[in-house]
TrEMBL record:
Keyword Metal-binding included in the entry's annotation: no
Domain of life: Eukaryota
GO molecular function: transaminase activity
Keyword Transferase belongs to the record: yes
Localization: Mitochondrion
Species of provenance: Apteryx mantelli (North Island brown kiwi)
Protein name: Alanine--glyoxylate aminotransferase 2, mitochondrial
Length: 425
């Protein structure tokens, strides 16, 4: 057991020897010891309900028994070969993963992170189309590598040096904060409080944002483009949802200009949105390339790119190699995660507990002035504070209704205390 002095010691080492650009969400970050399913435990033995899951990474639960046992077995057998050789784990995993995807998305590249997956996806769009320009949304986060930084459009991640040539940002179709959008625009159990003039099947906000998208295509890029990258729900920027039907029209416009569509499912994939396994399915589109990471490995470092045979063949003109991508341990982890999602009914749980939690949080929005918006789908939840801060909730998908009640209560208490303090000032 660590003595209490150890905390200060750990903090000192962190300050002295670990990347100083680590932004901590806490003035005093937790010193963690152990995790089990939706719970984390610190060195003092305190238990925490984990509503952030290492930023949406722990999908089926910390140290999920099934995933842990499968990993331990593989660790004792074979860690690494590089996939120039064969090992059943990679074949089995590729077959299993693609069974969750519609045709023609059947070719898998395994990577070690989301940035790497998006790097490769961007590369594929350029190699295949022989065009260069890629469009992305303002507010998106797609990675921190020099290539993906071009499509990461969040100020604090920009460092003012050359990166990501050929990337143009377009207006984010944000129905809460943007100029258009309102009560019936988004696919969420909770709508914005702003009224809109839409009726069934007619969304003026969607049309306005599509006009903006066309404007970007007409003014910022050449006639033909390489592609477009977007998350089905924007994650890091605060669970931002687009008007229904927007993405479908955007995909069509991109394809008319020769581009490929990338769906970044790093946060929205693997059942998190509840109603569907992949976020793109909630928009009724089929992308040309899907990228994955985080929840794919429940915390194990891995990522994937899935595309069509035709697109993959363009990369096969020359060599492409990844030392660790598709190692047997990662493949076994990935397969066990897919099994756990199915066996534990986690997609359904995301839908049930997520919807319940969203509706409970919506009651707080109606009561507290500082809660501007409650949005999301399944266990991908955002609460926008009108002082401009967004609170993001993306717990392991195994949390229960009881946990949701506890979380809502904690949030309510925090809001009440905030209001009391504000009144005292
Ligand atoms: N895409 C999205 C949507 C992400 O949220 C992230 C990480 N926050 C990434 C890509 C990059 O993943 P990684 O940190 O594994 O490189």
């Amino acid at each position: 057991k660590y003595q209490s002095y150890a905390y200060d010691h750990m903090l000192k080492i962190r300050e002295r020897n670990i990347s100083p650009s680590l932004v901590t969400y806490y003035k005093k970050p937790l010193l963690l010891h152990q995790g089990y399913m939706q719970w984390l435990f610190d060195y003092e033995g305190r238990r925490y309900l984990d509503l952030f899951a290492g930023i949406v990474t722990v999908s089926v639960g910390h140290c999920h028994p099934k995933v842990t046992v499968a990993t331990q077995k593989q660790l004792a057998r074979l860690w690494h070969t590089t996939n120039i050789y064969m090992h059943p784990s990679i074949q089995e995993y590729a077959e299993k993963l693609t069974s969750f995807l519609p045709d023609p998305l059947k070719v898998v590249y395994l990577t070690n992170s989301g940035s790497e997956a998006n790097d490769l996806a961007m590369f594929l769009t350029r190699i295949y189309t022989r065009n260069f320009d890629i469009i992305c949304f303002r507010g998106g986060y797609h990675g921190g590598s020099p290539y993906t930084l071009g499509v990461t459009s969040i100020g604090p991640y920009k460092h003012g040096i050359a990166n990501g040539f050929g990337c143009s940002t377009t207006m984010l179709p944000d129905v809460f904060r943007g100029p258009w959008g309102g009560s019936h625009c988004r696919d969420s159990p909770v709508q914005t409080i702003r009224k809109c003039s839409c009726s069934e099947g007619v969304c003026h906000a969607k049309d306005q944002y599509v006009e903006q998208f066309k404007d970007t295509l007409n003014t910022c890029v050449p006639k033909t483009i390489a592609g477009f990258i977007a998350e089905p729900i924007q994650g890091v920027n605060g669970t931002v949802q687009y008007p229904k039907g927007f993405l479908k029209e955007a995909y069509q416009l991109v394809r008319e200009r020769g581009g490929l569509c990338i769906s970044d499912e790093v946060q929205t994939g693997f059942g998190r949105t509840g109603s569907h396994f992949w976020g793109f399915q909630t928009h009724d589109v089929v992308p040309d390339i899907v990228t994955m990471a985080k929840g794919i490995g429940n915390g194990f470092p891995m990522g994937a790119v899935v595309t069509t045979k035709e697109i993959a063949s363009s990369l096969a003109q020359n060599l492409h190699f990844n030392t660790f991508g598709g190692n047997p341990v990662a493949c076994v982890v990935g397969a066990a995660v897919l099994d756990a999602i199915e066996e534990d009914g986690l997609q359904k749980n995301s839908e049930e507990v997520g919807t319940y939690m969203l509706l409970e949080f919506a009651k707080l929005r109606d009561k507290f002035e500082i809660v501007g918006d409650v949005r999301g789908k399944g266990l991908m939840i955002g609460i926008e504070m009108v002082t401009n801060k967004t609170f993001r909730i993306k717990p392991p998908m195994c949390i229960t209704k009881r946990d949701a009640d506890f979380a809502v209560e904690v949030f309510r208490t925090a809001l009440e205390r905030h209001m009391e303090r504000a009144a005292e000032k």
